[in-house]
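Each field is set out underneath.
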Amino acid sequence: MAIVRAIDFFRLWQRLALALALYSLWLSTPAQAAALLINSNTSWSALSGGTGTGGKPSSTDTITVGNNATLTVDVTNAVSGNILLGNAGVAGSLSFSGASSKLTVSGSITIGNGSALGNLTMVAGSNLLLQQFNYVGGSFTPSTGTVTMTANNTLPNAAALASFYNFTQSTGAITTLSRDTTINGVLTLTGGSIDTAGKTLIVSGPCATSVSRPSNGGYVNGNLRMSLLSGSSTCLYQLGSATGYAPISVNMVANSAGSLTASSIGAEHPQYASSGLDSSKGINRYWSLWKSGDTIDVSSYGVTLNYNSGDLDIATNTANIVLARYNGAVWTLPSTFTRGTNTLSLASQSGPLNATISFAGGEVLPQCNPPSDITGVTLSCVCENFTRANLNPSAIFGSDWSLSTSGGSFGLPRIVNSGTLRLTDNSNTVATAATVPANFPAAGNMIVVEFKNYSYNGGGADGMALTLSDASILPQPGAFGGSLGYAQKLGSDCTNPSGCAGFAGGWIGVALDEYGNFSNPTEGRAGGPGSRSDAVAVRGSGSGASTASTNYPYLDGTTSLSPGVDNASSSTPAYGHAYRVMVDARSYTATNKTATVSVYRDTSGAGSFSTSNRLLNFDAYQKNPSQAAVPSSWKLSFTGSTGGLANFHEIGGLKICAQSLNPPTSFRIAVDNLNPANCSTIPSGRPQITITALDINGNVATTYNKTVTLKAVLANGNVSSAVWAIQTGNGTLSGNQYTFAASDLGVAKFVLTDNVQEDVTVGVTENGSAFGVTFASPLQYRGGSFSIANVDTLASDTAGGVVAGRGHLFSVTRSNACGVDTTYNGAKNLDGWYSAVASVHPPAAAAPRICAPVLGTCVPSTGGCSTLPTSPPALVSGSDNLPSLTFTNGVANFCLVTSDVGRYSLNMRDDSNASLPIAGSSATLTVRPFALVLSNVKQGSTNNPATESRLALTCGIARLMLTAMACPIRMPPWPMSRRMV
């Protein structure tokens, strides 16, 4: 018996030892946050009553300073929760004592409290780290101290907080401005970003030394004003947006020092539609220089503009991107710029800079609308802008240009400068032809050809021609030199004893003659008034090298024009004058031969071809009764020619319109599927889908009026619950069926809304036909939703969940397809409920409550509260049961207040639009007790010794923690006793 009692005693001792160890662990858990009230001048080193080491404040303690007292930070490692400066109508101040003083605030500093003013004063070298400034009234003196923002925050719209010295933005945090803000020292972008929200961040020091950004650091999202020195300097503007870092480098020659503002906005320019760039094949970003208030006096400047791969529309070919510049009224496409890897650079531009200049990039949008000044006939057009690296395949019917040469060392026509087709370089004795990849009906048709001519950088010879030839004959250029690749040539520098043949199958050649010999009846050419330099001249039909008067005869021409046809002294493409050639054979028959030829020139750059700009207008058969019959179809070619003298010859901006075209008769649908990573300024940041009806040559089918099915498909092939809505379009949308209206001109835009977080592939098909398009890459769709997170800073809570009986700070974030919906702001009335985990949640447990925080905190008090139901309120607008929550840039804080243990998730919903509610949930929360009290602990009929409470409590903790321990008591079933201490 004694042996048995000894064994029992040993077991009891083992249990007691383990219980004491667990009890010591419980005693070491943090106590509830303290609230310190400072009513007399005090140094931080003298503080007591906090929950930190030695009674100093911890990161959860709230400090209030009032009674005109000053709390002085005189240590290097001060920490606190929230700090309120001012109390009970009397001011309170916080100051720093020296360069080594440092304070880290895990919450906010509120300057002023009610009617009381607050004062915050830093000194040289002092450091303040905090999550948020709040401002009621009072002053802030930054001196030369450093302020570091450690969490998402919005700087108050207060003059007292409009100026800092050193300012650091921590990794992962976003600071949003409410007013123009100045940094007088160094701006350090460790990570995260500063969102200027339409305001301006001003760095007053020299740009070379006043901004510090480590590798993979942060950036300024919005307007950044920096100071530049007189003379030559380079300034890197550390800019970006939601899609990432996208800076601007400015090379400046300034007449005097001054400030200059730059911005890099992750969206299409508001005037992008008039830029001449394709909105479905562009960079969803624009860059700007100068803002009202800038003082820089610029002599010249250059820029390097950076973008991210995520900024690109899916269909964009980066090799075709061009740079567009906007001066506030007119877009221009600089002829010389440099493409790099995710960069566009523009070399020296003349000053001054005294108005905002913006830049955008994208592929050139073919402008293929029929000429508005030609009436009485319906024309269809094809266009070619040469904005790519390789000529073939072309933008016309997706086919290849036919290229040929009959002399010289230049080779075949090709794209050298983006935007133009080079016919010759400035080498000698060249003749080439570039034939449009299409046949055009001839007899009974009208054809209109518009283009820009660039002849430059040489000796002023010889020229180029537009030819119409019989499509049944393979095009080959005519003779070089004064024959301009169209007419024949005999003797002189033609080395063929039989003569050099003219253009194969040529029906007419309209020449831009620089040197003047195309009008000269020499070298075997038939007819002409003699040499006429800088003239437009026309020759008729012909074949071979015959010198007969009916072979490529001179029909009509101008005298020498001013300005001239070429600009031989220019080292860059010039002049770029616009020409229009019209051939009207609509009335032509075998018995009534008539075909009118008209030539226009516009030197203003406006593209106007009025009667006053007409150079020639004649009937080819009246000029040449032997003119060949109009064939059934024409080929269109451009020829270029040099002789003993030479120029560069290029064409650009080609548009060909005709009453009748022969393109394939089907269509394809293009979808501009914006990746959410490069969201534009579209409604609530949702994805925008642009659907464009195109004919097979790639031009917008402006008469398209079919019904199409808009598709949103999940990865498993099921139909998505995403909802289509018209953004711009005059047609009819029924579900996902859209019928184009005539006034849509072939283009409609839609917003896609989805309340489920899922990946969606979008596409479109034409009803009743098999054609359409679907993108292989899905939208990484994260539709409108709420996410709920525990943001309480108590370390004991982040690992274990929630402690019953204490308010916990939570956040709710409104997200959309572009991430956080920063447009979701102000007071919101939402639905709320909780979902219990039935297998473990106590059936009789008291329901949790959601409360509005007071001054951003749940301690020591909370605002208005609502007890949560276990099921969602009715899905109708106005059914809201939560206290009003205030959202800033898509995020609001609230307090979760509990009085009982349990396990559940929180749910919130915005059903202000009941047909498209926004909802979301938290992760599953485990709410555990803060402590347990057990009483009447007995061993049989004998009361426990004096250590009863400690032993019982330790056993309770052990069982709650699911720790293996044999206790001499019985624990009640879950839930434990809910009597709290």
Notes: The radius of gyration is 39 Å. Residues 82 and 613 are 76 Å apart (CA to CA). The chain has five helices and 74 strands.
